[in-house]
TrEMBL record:
One of its GO terms (molecular function) is calcium ion binding. The keyword Cell membrane applies. Residues 1-29 form the signal peptide. It is a single-pass type I membrane protein. This is Cadherin domain-containing protein. It comes from Hippocampus comes (Tiger tail seahorse). Potential calcium-dependent cell-adhesion protein. May be involved in the establishment and maintenance of specific neuronal connections in the brain. Its main location: membrane. CDD domains: Cadherin_repeat. PANTHER family: CADHERIN-87A, PCDH2G3 PROTEIN-RELATED.
Amino acid sequence: CLSTTLPSVPLTRAHTFYFLFLLFHSSHGDVSFSFPEEMQRGSVIGNLAKDLGLEASALSGRKARINADGSGKRYCDLNARSGELIVADRIDREVLCGNKASCILKQEVVLENPLELHRINLHIQDVNDNAPLFKDDLIDLEIRESAVKGARFVIEEAHDADVGQNSVQQYLLKKNDNFVLSVGGNTVELVLDKELDREKESEMNLLLTALDGGSPRRSVVIHVTVLDANDNAPVFSKAVYKASLPENSPPDTIVINVRATDADEGVNGDVTYDFGHVSGNIISVFSISPVTGEIKVTGVTDFEEKASYEMRVEAKDGLGLTSYAKVIIDITDVNDNAPVINLKSLAYPVAENVSPGTEVGIINVQDRDSEKNGQVRCSIEQNVPFKLVPSIKNYYSLVTTEQLDRELVSDYNITISATDEGSPPLSSSKSVLLSVADINDNPPVFEEQSYSAYVSENNKAGCTLCSVSAQDPDWRQNGTVIYSLLPSEVNGASVSSYVSVNGDTGVIHAVRSFDYEHLRSFQVHVMARDNGSPPLSSNVSVSVFISDVNDNSPQILYPSPEVTRHLRKPQFEPNWPPASIRLISLKQTKH
Ligand SMILES: *[C@@H]1O[C@H](CO)[C@@H](O)[C@H](O)[C@H]1NC(C)=O
Ligand SMILES: *[C@@H]1O[C@H](CO)[C@@H](O)[C@H](O)[C@H]1NC(C)=O
Ligand SMILES: *[C@@H]1O[C@H](CO)[C@@H](O)[C@H](O)[C@H]1NC(C)=O
């Protein structure tokens, strides 16, 4: 019996042992061979004859044959001519022994004549014929971005059917930004070294390579999907939004659109808009769409009331992270206010004797609009003796341009119009009623240059001789005419003993009966005076002519009345007395 024990040699390089085999002699007639797995059929394992100390020819003579031990499967054969043991079937260490550290196949060789039984131990050496293997080609990992540094994620390890140095020795993780590898015992873990940010990188591929002792290495791609965490608040595109809006813009006019973006996903990134804390009057004027961030007009904007609105807008994501921005809406002026004319003072009435250029009133014009829309021009378009003189800001003086005359125009209805410079312009007008006060500037004027009155003598005292009339266009007492006689004398007596004048009516009456034979005519002067203070007057002359009436009997002056006493009727001599004498004597005898 041969027996040999050899220290086991580490099989670091499988291929160098492919043709190397060692011979063992068991102390009990066992023979051991050590050889690598996966040798080709027919490959020589060893020379059994030699090992058993027999001639090769003896083997066939003694009908040597191999029996499988127990398992019944025969892995080797005997070459009866050469005495060599050769591979009879595929020997795969991993199939036969799994991951056992040593793999020994037991076979028997039987010899006859005499009967001998030798055990053959086939030490199958591992050859690195298996690469490490991951269960799947791709490993999917889902990691929330909120994972903290140091978090560990177990990766299913790689398997390598080979054993010892030929099994998985090492893992390599291709350099990346976030993960490092931790291998301990049987666990392979990814360790988060730098925190993830889905918004920067939502997925990544890591390359993990498993190496066994030999050269075939195997890699696996670890696909990491970074899951969202609500770690981003919405962000407005601007810190301050500015818009301008014409006043009186109709409801639904879009003012501005605010926009905020949220880098998160899904509900974490759904942004809704609202006003921040704002006073009630803004709510009634503007609205914001929660979905689109569109700010619209809902109420009335009036530049003159409020020229600018400032408000906060809020953007909120699904889980309540908020941010704010400011919105400033400037209202621009529209020419929507007509000028308003105010009469600040007015001389009432205006005396007709004021000199041209006298200020009779003060006008103030207001236009609530701004700039051009509020710049006003004022004018009087009628043909009246007044004009507007611009004074200090928005004030105008109403000034006369000519001498007034109440007796021509006693009342003025002055229309003042004001127009602003907007586009289109707005205008308004105001009527100013102005009365002209009377001044006693007109004397009474007689209708005739002079008057004549004819009266027959022997008139009755008190009879009407004629009437005079004077007109005075002034007002009331300034125009009230009073007639009177201007004192004078007629025939040495006061005129008032001849005639009188009715002060109110201008009717002239005879005060006495006139006698043609005594007074044939006379002249009086009548004054018309108004009641002003001081009064004005004018004079007119009235000539009174007295006509004759046959009121005297003839009287005989010669011869003496005794002569004529005998005569019943005047008896005229044809030639005496001569007619001229008779006429003269008639006149002379008038009483
Ligand atoms: C003054 O004139 C205006 C416009 O012409 C008119 O409407 C108004 O009635 C007038 N006023 C008087 C008192 O006549
Ligand atoms: C008459 O004229 C005077 C000035 O001459 C004036 O003061 C007065 O008010 C006038 N009277 C009336 C009734 O207008
Ligand atoms: C009228 O006559 C009176 C008396 O002679 C005189 O005082 C007055 O001035 C006269 N008036 C006019 C207008 O001539």
